[in-house]
Amino acid sequence: MSHDHEQDPPSEMALRVKALETLLTQRGYVDPSAVDKVIDHYQNAVGPRNGAKVVAKAWTDTEFKKRLLENGTQTIAELGFIGLQGEYMVAVENTPSVHNLVVCTLCSCYPWSVLGLPPSWYKSHAYRSRAVREPRAVLKEFGVDLDQSVEVNVWDSTSEVRYLVIPQRPEGSNGLSEAELADLVTTNSMIGTHVLPPVSKVGEQL
Amino acid sequence: MTADEIASKFASQVPLVDEGEPVFNEPWQAQVFALTIGLYDGGHFGWQEWSEALGKTRAAQARTGEDDYYLAWLDTLSDLVVEKGLAEPEQLRFLRDQWREAYLRTPHGQPVELDEA
Question: pTM for the whole thing?
Answer without folding.
Answer: 0.56
